[in-house]
Structure formats: structure tokens, C-alpha cells
Amino acid sequence: MLEKLFKLKNSGTTAKIEILAGLTTFMTMGYILIVNPQILSAAGMNEGAVFTATAISAFIGTMVMAFYANKPFALAPGMGLNAFFAYTVVIQMGYSWQFALTAVFLEGIIFIIMTFFKLRVAIINSIPYNLKKAVSVGIGLFIAFIGLQGGGIIVDNPATMVSIGQLHNGAALLTIIGILITGFLLAKKVKGALLYGILISTVIGIFMGVTQVPEGLKIFSLPPSISPIFLKFEFQNIFSFDMLIVLFTFLFVDLFDTVGTLIGVSTKAGMVDEKGNLPGVHRALLADAIGTTAGACLGTSTVTTYVESAAGVAEGGRTGLTALSTGILFALALLFAPLLLMVPAAATAPVLIIVGLFMMSPIKEINLDDYTEAIPAFLTIIMMPLAYSIAEGIVFGMISYAILKLISGKAKDVTALGYIIAALFILKYLFL
């Protein structure tokens, strides 16, 4: 049955590998179940209700990815987009969270329409081959940076922006131990090394005081109701100028974060064709759009494809069975949240750091001799971690690629759509 649904043999994988990959993906992105409610509660939303909405929306989006797209990617409310929702739209601009939810709902509808007409696929195909390779490398640096921050190895510093943390402290020390354990398992070619690294680190963290065991060893709880945030829209404001600005920002960031994640992770996994395109990508994009629309109805910010899916792909995940496994765990999280959420960030951070290494390999295929190719690729790579945004990395790469090709007499290397996208990016920086 699984073979018929997911075509495991055609992808060179097995049910065991896919399930382990799905578990690994969940372990690395499960933090969203804690973080998203915390962020959206700052906008005045019910924290318990947002927890339930986060888990259900992740389940819905990931299930569509599993069964319709048959891709190993997981979805959940996106980091960055949830912060824009709470801190910019609600707190800074002064709008209600219902206004912000309405913008997210409209975003999802627009993405469904764009996907139907394959506009998002055309955008993906307009990204040059070398930049697609660079996206994978940039994402590697980005998620490694996230891991280093989550593990307390890299911390904020007002003078230098970032600096080394207190490495003898519990979280940072556990992260370092986790890197060594996971590295040892990988060196010994242990199947499921990334997942085992997380689990072993979690257990070690108990004795170090980093892993918090549920009080009274409670592992089961009923999920809070979503009624305080379910279908809470403000359609009377959809024709305002501010709604246009908010909606455009949601559309822009989600579009290019998703595009970057799909390209980067698929490139590393060898799932793209000779032109760097991902077969069936329109199905994956539709899963993303449906997840966002459903999430808005449930009461959460934009649902997007998660870069942490790279952890599952690195573990061997190649089909929708990986996504199915992750989605089931999001559903179980509704009932077993105390158990699943005891995994500390310091236990998943080593996996993100090591997956960052895995994502670096396409750099060998980037043409570094032609500077009209090398400079845009480098800007794509370096801007992702420095700007803390996959989308901004793509923006810098596309703009520099179009301009350098144009002034170097190689204008034909860029498609018409490529020039249009670059021009829109420039206008964004000039006027928004």
C-alpha cells in the first residue's frame, strides 16, 4: 500500500528510511509549537488556542504535501512571518490581529490562484541554474546559523551584533556534545544518525538540567479549544491601502522563502532535473497555499514549507511518506505535547548545524570563473544568514545577476521574467 501511494522504489528509498526521516524533521521543527503561540500571544491572541491552530495547520499542510505532492517537505506557521504578523502589523501599525489574519487568508487565496495558473512555477524556473545551487548553499549557512543560535553557541552582542556564548553553560555545552555524538554516528554510517543524535542529546540534557521533564511525568493532555481565534476575519478593511502593503509583504516573503526552500533542499537531495527544476513543484506550491489558507481560518499566521525539512532529506527522506510521518507527529502533539515538547533546542541544534554542512556540497558545481555568475551566487549565499532571510538572499542574487549580465553584454542569459522580477525587487527597496 505504501509503495503504491508513495512510489518508494522509484525514489530509491524504504518505508523505514522515510519514517525515520519524518521523525527527524519533526524533531528539528517541533519548536514552532512553543514559539508560534508565544509570538502571536503578543498580538493579543489566545496562546492555548494558537498552539492548537499551529499543530492542526501544520498537519493539514503537511498531509497535502504528502498525498498530493508526494514530496518529503513539512509545513507549519513560518518564523519571521509570525513576527511580522504580531510585532509589525498589530503592535507597530496598530491593527487588530483579526486584520492580520484577514491578510494571511487573502494571501493564501492569491497563492492558490497563482499556483493554478503556474505563475509560481514560472518564477522558480526563471531563477538561473547557478543561483539555484547557491540557494542550497545559502540555506545551509542559514540553518547552521539558526542551530548555533538555538544552541547558545552564538549569542547577541550589541557591539558586534553576534559573538560566542558561554560555552561552559548547559545549553551550549549540550549542543557541542550533540555535534560530537551525531558526528560520531555519521562517521560510523549509522542509519538514523541525526534522529538518534537528538534523542541521545535529550537524555543527556536531563542530567545537565537542560531537558525539562514534564511535571509529575505527565505526558498526555487535551488540546485547548480554537474557538477564540477560529474564522475571526475583518473583511471590511480589505480595500484599504495598509491592507495592500501588509498583504504584499506577506506574499513577497512567503513566496521567496518557499521557493528558496524547495529549490535548496531539492537540489541537495538530487530531486531536480538537469536544468535545476523540481518536477511536480506546482503540487508542492499548492500544498503551501492550502496550508496558509487553512491556517488563517484556524487562527494562525502564514503556513510555509520549512527549511528544517532538510534534516529529514539528509536522513534519506525522498517521498511523501516522510511528510506523512511528520504530519502524524504534529497531530499527536495535540495529545502528547508535554512529552514531545520536552526536547530542548540544544538537542536539535546539532542536527541543524550538521545539515548545514550537508547543504554545502552544491558549491562545487557553481561556476566561480565567470564573475557574472560567481558574484550573484556569492551574494545569494552570504545574504541568507546575514539578513536572516532566504527571500533576501534570492533578491540580492537575482538583482545582481540581471544587472551584471546586462552591463557585461550577456543580456540574453537572463529571461524576460528574470528582468521583470529583478525590476520588481528594486522597486520594493525603493518604495517599501
How does this model look, in words?
By secondary structure, the chain is mainly α. The chain folds into 2 domains: 2-218 and 238-362, no CATH class; 363-431, no CATH class. Helices cover 67% and strands 3% of the residues. It is built from 18 helices and 4 strands. It has helices at 2-6, 15-29, 32-41, 47-69, 81-92, 97-116, 119-126, 129-150, 170-187, 193-208, 241-269, 281-298, 309-314, 320-340, 345-358, 371-387, 390-407, 416-431; strands spanning 75-77, 154-157, 161-164, 303-305. It has a two-stranded antiparallel ribbon. The longest helix has 29 residues, at 241-269. The radius of gyration is 21 Å and the shape is globular. The mean pLDDT is 87.
Average pLDDT figure: 87
How many discrete structural domains?
2
Count up the helices: 18
Strand order of the largest sheet: 1-4
Distance between the termini: 51 Å
Sequence of secondary-structure elements: HHHHEHHHHEEHHHHEHHHHHH
Give the uncertain stretches in residue-range form: none
* Extended strand count: 4
* Range of strand content: under 5%
